[in-house]
Design goal:
Largest sheet: 2 strands, antiparallel
Protein name: Transmembrane protein
Order of helices and strands: HEEH
Number of helices: 2
Strand content: 5-15%
Keywords: Membrane, Transmembrane, Transmembrane helix
Number of strands: 2
Radius of gyration: 27 Å
C-alpha cells in the first residue's frame, strides 16, 4: 500500500512540476535596438518557479523509483514465499 501511495505522490509531483514549469514562462516586450526598428518580444523565466519545478521533478523521480522498487520487491518476496516449502528451510538449531 505504501508503494502505491508513493507512486500517486510521484504523479502529483510530476503534475505540479508541469504546471509550475509552464507558469514560469512569460512573454515580455523588448524595446527597439535602434531608431526605426520594430519592438520585439522575449521570453522571461521566473527563477523561484523554475526552482520549484526542478525540485518537484526531483521528488517525482525519487518517489517513482522508490514506489516501483518496492512493488517489485514485494512481488519477488511473494514469489519466493510461494516456492518455499518446510523441507527447503534450514534446520533449526536446538539449544544446548
Amino acid at each position: 500500500m505504501r508503494h502505491v501511495v508513493q507512486l500517486l505522490l510521484a504523479a502529483l509531483a510530476l503534475a505540479g512540476a508541469v504546471i509550475t514549469g509552464l507558469d514560469s514562462r512569460s512573454v515580455v516586450p523588448v524595446s527597439p535596438v535602434a531608431d526605426g526598428q520594430p519592438s520585439t518580444t522575449s521570453v522571461a523565466f521566473d527563477p523561484p518557479l523554475m526552482f520549484l519545478s526542478w525540485a518537484l521533478l526531483t521528488a517525482a523521480g525519487v518517489l517513482l523509483v522508490l514506489g516501483v522498487a518496492g512493488l517489485l520487491r514485494g512481488r519477488q518476496a511473494r514469489a519466493v514465499a510461494a516456492i518455499r516449502t518446510p523441507a527447503s528451510d534450514p534446520p533449526a538449531l536446538e539449544p544446548t
